[in-house]
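We emphasize that the prediction below concerns an isolated chain of 198 residues; any contacts that depend on oligomerization or on bound cofactors are therefore not represented. The input was used exactly as deposited, without trimming of termini.
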Amino acid sequence: MLLPTDEEIRALHEKHAPTRAAFDLVHTHCEIVCGIAEQLLADGDPSLDADLVRAGSLLHDIGVYRLYDTDGRIDESGYIRHGILGDELLRDEGIPDVLRRFCSRHTGVGITRDDVRRQELPLPVADYVAESREEELVMYADKFHSKTDPPTFVSATSYADRIRRFGADKVAKFTAMCETFGVPDLRPFVAEYGHVPA
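Result of the prediction step, given as a token string:
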């Protein structure tokens, strides 16, 4: 499979970003997640497809652009939908499913059909969970940076505390990912991007 280049992915971000501020926020976040994933990949399983991880990282949050209104404000109440919106956006662009899945499968530590029903989430009832190791790595790397205002880096402890309200099973899943992939060293990213740790 021919993967899009970094330049082609950047062009997709530029095409769909409603404002320069939106582009800067989302594309920078995707670059950071890519860097974290690549750091973890360098110290981890060499059987993972590094090129797929890179492309998936750079595309995973592209659906956020579809949440902006005409005044440049983001619809926070519909944020849970950004993954499926990204999948739809990439489908409309002719991007193959193997890459679109990074959008729809990275939220939290995975959203199950039971989660959708129990929490009455505004999503079609389905499982939105990482299935490949590459999808899981991108989902995991995403947990260490937040597009809050201002953007912040998130420690493993802080993230585990944040998801505790969704159940012990979610914390256990995140803890298992920490053991599988290791905990990234965020210091180089803090130094490069200036976003403070949460």
